[in-house]
């Protein structure tokens, strides 16, 4: 990763981001202001993610997409104009994306994300992959996990969609909770309270740490094992439906019989687990 300077919020930026600074604080906005983000895939989901990142006020956003603007993509996303059909999707989305917030450095990259070297990904603080293959997501996630780079992956299938995030081996955060008032033993008037009460007017901040697993670890869970099946009731059925859709999409793209057989086996395992979860 590149060395980061201590970000400074100018008066103009403070006015621009006033509402969100009130929401998550100046320190959080400074971290956003110092972050460089890569977004791969400028479909409908990618365009929405780009808009939110730009309006949030990151330092820089790189739009990476090798595909061309089609009639379908014009209907799915709002950054590429209808007149840009046939042009590169990242380049066509650049002008409208930049106009959302001139304070953010927005760049377009027309290369294939699969062709990028490991060194390319290391220049970013966070990477968002939309509509990418499973193999690519696993590769980038493994690389970023080793280099403390945040990773977000997602895709949409009609009314269904998924999101995976990996924020590292030790992710620290704070949680605000209502303050619990312990019963006092000094009361002489009437019986002592038996249980602690929650005061909705006061809150306390609790520091917590969580470890995120890699995408490879998540995908390699054998849901037919006894331990994993015990967790099926807490796992939404949509998760397995999305796995099945992803496998089906991959099957349709592969022509070699050996690779197709492997993916079909994975697909069948997913459907088998889905059957178990219904029973």
From TrEMBL:
Name listed for the protein in its UniProt record: SUMO-activating enzyme subunit 1
Entry keyword DNA repair: no
PANTHER family with a match to the protein in the record: SUMO-ACTIVATING ENZYME SUBUNIT 1 (PTHR10953:SF162), UBIQUITIN-ACTIVATING ENZYME E1 (PTHR10953)
Family that this chain belongs to: Belongs to the ubiquitin-activating E1 family.
GO cellular component: cytoplasm; SUMO activating enzyme complex
SUPFAM superfamilies per the UniProt record, alphabetical: Activating enzymes of the ubiquitin-like proteins
Matching Pfam families: ThiF (PF00899)
SUBUNIT field: Heterodimer of SAE1 and UBA2/SAE2. The heterodimer corresponds to the two domains that are encoded on a single polypeptide chain in ubiquitin-activating enzyme E1. Interacts with UBE2I.
The protein's annotated pathway: Protein modification; protein sumoylation
GO biological process: protein sumoylation
Cell compartments where the protein resides: Nucleus
GO MF, one annotated term: SUMO activating enzyme activity
Key words, A-Z: Nucleus, Ubl conjugation pathway
Originating organism: Nothobranchius rachovii (bluefin notho)
UniProt domain THIF-type NAD/FAD binding fold: residue ranges: 17-167
Keyword Nucleus appears in the UniProt entry: yes
